[in-house]
Amino acid sequence: MTAQSAPAKRRGPIQPGPGELLPPSAASLATRFPVPGEGWLEGEITPDDVVIRTIAEKLLIGRNPTFFPGPLLLWGWNEATRIRASAALELVAEIPGIRIIPMPDYRPIYPKIDPEAVINPCHPNLTIWHNKIEVGLFMDAHCHYVNVMMKIIRAGTNCYTIAICANDTHEDAIASLGWVDLDKLARLRQAIVALRDSGTIVPWALTASGKAELAEQAKRRAQARQEVRTTLERWEHELVTGLDENEE
């Protein structure tokens, strides 16, 4: 009698791309959507606890994990928002090597965006490509735009998108948690810490390739900061001394 191999893990209908130009919306593939206590995982309704564990794992092992806080979190509308933002920062601080790229606005930034400094949700794939991001945590963007943004990313990149929201799940993300309050943020943070410290995985940022990539990124950012300082010093000198009238 021969041993049987373990059954392959079933994969849901919503997976990281790159996919076709216009991937089908998750809404067209579902008969119902999550309610409180449930989340969304790869196109399937899944218990919150399972989604939380999956999100924790993806954020730890994914290449270039990045936190994208949306305008509902960034602008500090009231005291509750400021408390929520503090809890979010405590959560992402537990993820080795994570970067933060803000999403302050939804207006196209033309003629050119700086994809190292800000995500432009009209062209989010540019930021994902430029920074080689393979897992992204999106939090508190406006609900009406999130699914559009997730579809653009899923169509053109291999990024594992994670959306968490105070109001609802976002089905065009690969994984999503809705009705996320301070308690659920704490549960996600605890799951990340427990898995990180369990010894069962090695976070991407602590692997040899992760360390090398992060060191190269730090070197490029230092060079960019030096270029800015040099430009500012030149402008300051010109403001103090004035331009040479004989200079062509």
Q: Any idea what the CATH architecture of the largest domain is?
A: 3-Layer(aba) Sandwich
Q: Can you summarize the main beta sheet?
A: 7 strands, mixed
Unreliable residue runs:
1-8
Number of helices: 7
CATH fold-type name of the largest domain: Rossmann fold
| Class based on secondary structure composition and strand pairing | alpha/beta
Q: Could you give the count of β-strands?
A: 7
What order do the strands of the largest sheet run in, or round the barrel if closed?
2-1-7-6-5-3-4
* H and E string: EEHEHHEHEHEEHH
Strand content: 5-15%
Number of structural domains: 2
Task: Determine the fraction of residues in helical runs and give it as a percent range.
Answer: 40-55%
Estimate the global geometry from the Cα principal axes.
Answer: globular
Tell me the Rg in angstroms.
21 Å
Q: Termini, distance in Å?
A: 89 Å
Average predicted confidence as pLDDT: 85
Give the class-level CATH name of the largest domain.
Answer: Alpha Beta
Assigned CATH superfamily of the largest domain = TPP-binding domain
Characterization of the model:
It contains seven helices and seven strands; from the N terminus they run ββαβααβαβαββαα. It has 248 residues and is an alpha/beta fold. A seven-stranded mixed sheet has the order 2-1-7-6-5-3-4, sandwiched between helices. β5, α5 and β6 (160-164) form a beta-alpha-beta unit. α1 crosses α6 and α3 runs parallel beside α6. The chain is globular.
Summarize, please.
The protein has 248 residues and is an alpha/beta fold.
Give a quick set of tags describing it.
248 residues; Rossmann fold
